[in-house]
Write a structure and sequence with these properties.
- The complex is a heterodimer of chains A (590) and B (195).
- Chain A has 590 residues and is α/β, with parallel strands linked by helices.
- Chain A has 2 domains: 456 residues, no CATH class; 116 residues, no CATH class.
- The longest helix of chain A is centred in the middle third of the chain and has 34 residues.
- Helix content of chain B is 19%, strand content 33%.
- Chain B has an 8-stranded mixed β-sheet.
- The longest helix of chain B has 32 residues.
- The chains are: A alpha/beta (590), B alpha+beta (195).
- At the A-B interface, helix 7, helix 15, helix 16, helix 17 and helix 18 of A face helix 1, helix 2 and strand 10 of B.
Chain lengths: 590, 195
């Protein structure tokens, strides 16, 4: 694994260090802003962690500016960004002095060490990924390419245009770093993932005052479950980037509401503006963030409201939420389309979830509102899978879809775990047992198994489930680019996409590497269901009618069955054969 | 005092939840793992295929174009015993003959009466040699795949009357999308699979 990571750093150092530079710059800018908000009152560790959680915001705003001012075609801008950025970063580092005290230094050192290891571990993925995984990535590639070539994105009214923020962000990096789109997308995704666990630290630390609780939250977010990391196998980069910003938004909102009276008017304005920009950025990065944020906001308001009620009423509400949660889980388990949602949290990481729920009981004493809000959020996130909405151009969908909820559930669980550990710590320090066994050992006892579980079971490489492009595919795509006419229509394999409880197909997904033909070669592709029987006359007639001249059979995923194509030699002629990859010419149409 | 009672109540609820969950998972797991024990009564659970399946599973249901239904089943290895499939709908049972697919060594195709999607039915794989139950599961057909591409399927008035477009609607410039029909059943493959 170590050699794989070194290979990525050696061969793609300009992307790795380029993205890391922008992350550092983003953190520096976030730091300056946060310092303006609260002067030097904030704990240095909290500053540091919150600015790390907010790195996406300044860089995204910069890329948005780059996009809106159409600087993509300005070579001067591309040449200036890096040197100016470096100078800016150096200036920020000087400005952020004095250095924190020894107590804070230890934690900051730990956070940096964690980031270093996290970056190394996550980069292993890129060593074995030829292209970003699954079919979503091909669509992201196309949209990024469009921004780069035309200096503009597709019209917003287009139904296929979504999550423009991520595409603008990546296009900006590709331009400034002079890199290629697939590798930048891939490495950016891995680095976002490496930084993502840190984002929960501030909230837990700020609420509990415990560094250990914050660190436990980081460990849970990074290693507790195979989500959200597995989402890179789905090409869910926009959702990941938005998810990386979500804890920053929640932290700012919490800070704002809790310490409102302590801020002076200018500070309030800066904090509100930062929060507003963060909200807009998050929604631009992934449109469904709006629903997630609404869910969390509603859960928090209900949690605050129920605190005013009598004990009996609160108990009834608490039990009702639990009961609804159980019903949610039961309903999801029964639905074949939704059941995979529970895999990371019940089947594979069931014991971690159980541990978190158990710990959360200890958080009730100090932070009952927070615990209730987390549980209610989980409940509503799961429930939103059953609430239909009609979106123009997409038909009837549900508020959230299964992959997004599966990705996001780690966050409330992580917060619950952190708060729970802080609760155990407080209880322990008051008990007589604390004389015999220090709390530190208990924390190690809890974190150790989580890390060990991850080291033993975690797959740091691309999952076979979702890799659509093999080496033979790349060779075939290269061959096709050079040998097939630019106006040739190519038939590619697709499958129906089902992630909604209604069982209504959400669209079509690429079945194999054929989904990359259009973005890479600009040829028109005609999607056909992977199960098409090419031996049938009706299929042949349809191909002729649609003027499909070539058919691509990929190596991985769900390619066409070659049987019909091979049998009907009078209709189809093999042009290229490399392993399982085949390119056929339709010769029957004349 | 109230707060303590609230904590105690919550603790009890969580413990109950954990015990129930653990029991459920254990029960669930024990069913899955029973085939590894070599026990006389081992019956593997039959269901839809996920990723990395090590047990027989259903890949898809499709029409054969002559009023019958094809059930594609993935078996763990080519040494898996020959079997036939029975589907029980309420009290009626239907037999489906199965044979290996030549081009896909671990795939078996069974053919029999067409069933309607959405109904809960019992599926059983029975070994031809000793009539042993190899795998069993109860679930609904959540999608019946037509054996023609979507565009061609749309042309059949029996399925839908949506007219075929002369030029396909672009998904994004350069790429055409198949003409979709609201009545087209879906393929039983949950998108975005887990590892």
């Amino acid at each position: 694994m170590f050699t794989d990571v070194l290979a990525v750093i050696r061969e793609e150092w300009h992307i790795v260090f380029g993205v890391l530079f922008f992350i550092a710059l983003g953190q520096g800018l976030a730091s300056i802003t946060l310092k303006k908000i609260s002067g030097n009152q904030q704990n240095p560790v909290e500053y540091f962690s919150l600015s790390l959680a907010g790195w996406v915001l300044p860089i995204f705003l910069l890329s948005l500016l780059w996009f809106l001012l159409r600087w993509a075609s300005e070579p001067l801008f591309s040449r200036l960004v890096l040197p100016v950025g470096i100078l800016l970063l150096v200036a920020i580092l000087f400005r952020l002095r004095p250095m924190p005290g020894p107590g804070s230094k230890k934690i900051i050192f730990f956070l940096l060490l964690f980031l270093f290891l996290s970056v190394l571990l996550r980069l292993a993925f890129a060593s074995r990924a030829l292209f970003p995984s699954y079919f979503d990535s091909a669509e992201h590639y196309h949209l990024i390419q469009n921004i780069l070539q035309n200096g503009t994105a597709l019209p917003v009214s287009s139904t296929s245009y979504y999550h423009p923020g991520f595409h603008i962000f990546t296009a900006f990096l590709v331009t400034v770093l002079k890199t290629d789109i697939p590798r930048t997308m891939l490495i950016l995704g891995q680095l976002v993932l490496a930084y993502l666990p840190i984002s929960g630290f501030f909230l837990v630390r700020h609420v509990t005052g415990s560094n250990s609780a914050g660190i436990f939250a980081i460990v849970l977010a990074a290693f507790g479950w195979y989500m959200p990391a597995h989402a890179v196998n789905w090409g869910k980069y926009p959702a990941l980037m938005s998810l990386a910003l979500l804890p920053f938004i929640l932290s700012l909102a919490y800070w704002l509401t809790q310490d409102w009276t302590e801020f002076a008017q200018p500070q309030k304005r800066i904090l509100c503006a930062t929060l507003g920009f963060s909200l807009v950025s998050s929604i631009l990065l992934h449109s469904r963030s709006l629903i997630v944020l609404a869910v969390v906001c509603l859960a928090w308001m209900i949690a605050a409201w129920q605190r005013r009620l009598s004990f009996i009423t609160r108990s009834i509400i608490f039990m009702t939420v639990f009961a609804i949660l159980l019903v949610d889980v039961f309903m999801i388990h029964r639905q074949a389309v939704l059941a995979p949602l529970l895999d990371p949290y019940l089947a594979d990481g069931g014991w971690v979830t159980a541990l978190v729920l158990l710990l959360s009981v200890f958080a009730l004493r100090e932070n009952s509102q927070f615990v209730f809000a987390c549980l209610l959020s989980v409940c509503m996130l799961l429930g939103s899978l059953f609430i239909p909405i009609r979106i123009p151009g997409y038909g009837v969908l549900t508020l959230l879809d299964r992959p997004l909820v599966e990705m996001i559930l780690y966050l409330p669980l992580t917060l619950l775990g952190g708060l729970g550990l802080a609760g155990v710590g407080k209880l322990w320090s008051r008990s007589s047992f604390s004389k015999f066994l220090r709390m530190d050992y208990i924390q190690i006892l809890l974190m150790g198994p989580v890390i060990l579980h991850a080291l033993v079971t975690y797959d740091w490489y691309p999952s076979n489930c979702c890799v659509l492009v093999g080496k033979n595919d790349i060779a075939a795509l290269d061959w096709m680019k050079n040998h097939l006419p630019a106006d040739a229509r190519i038939g590619i394999s697709i499958t129906e996409m089902n992630v909604l409880v209604s069982d209504a197909p959400e669209g079509y997904s690429g079945g194999d590497a054929g989904i990359w033909i259009m973005p890479l070669m600009d040829n028109v592709t005609i999607p056909l269901l992977y199960s098409s029987d090419f031996g049938q006359q009706t299929i042949k007639d349809m191909l002729c009618q649609k003027r499909v001249r070539y058919i691509y059979v990929g190596e991985l995923g769900q390619p066409f069955n070659s049987a019909g194509l091979q049998e009907r030699t009078e209709w189809y002629e093999v042009l290229l054969s490399r392993g399982k990859v085949k390119v056929y010419e339709v010769v029957a149409c004349g | 005092m109230n707060r303590n009672r609230l904590i105690a109540g919550a603790a009890v609820a969580v413990v109950i939840l954990l015990v129930l969950g653990a029991a459920g998972v254990a029960l669930w797991r024990s069913k899955d793992q029973s085939r590894h024990t070599g026990h006389k009564l081992e019956i593997t659970k039959l269901g839809y295929c996920g990723s990395g399946e090590t047990r027989p599973c259903i890949v898809s249901f499709s029409q054969d174009g002559e009023g019958g239904m094809l059930v594609d089943i993935l078996v763990p290895d080519s040494g898996f015993p020959n079997f036939y499939l029975t589907i029980y709908r309420e009290t009626e049972g239907y037999l489906y003959e199965c044979e290996d697919m030549e081009d896909l060594p671990n795939n078996v195709r069974c053919i029999g009466k067409e069933m309607s999607p959405g109904e809960l039915m019992q599926f059983t794989l029975i070994a031809e040699a000793d009539k042993r139950v190899l795998a069993q599961g109860q679930f609904a057909i959540i999608g019946l795949l037509l054996s023609t591409p979507v565009a061609a399927a749309v042309e059949t008035p029996a399925v839908t009357e949506v007219p075929v477009e002369e030029e396909p609607t672009p998904i994004f410039p350069g790429q055409a999308t198949p003409v979709s029909s609201p009545t087209l059943p879906s393929y039983p493959n949950p998108g975005y699979p887990n590892p």
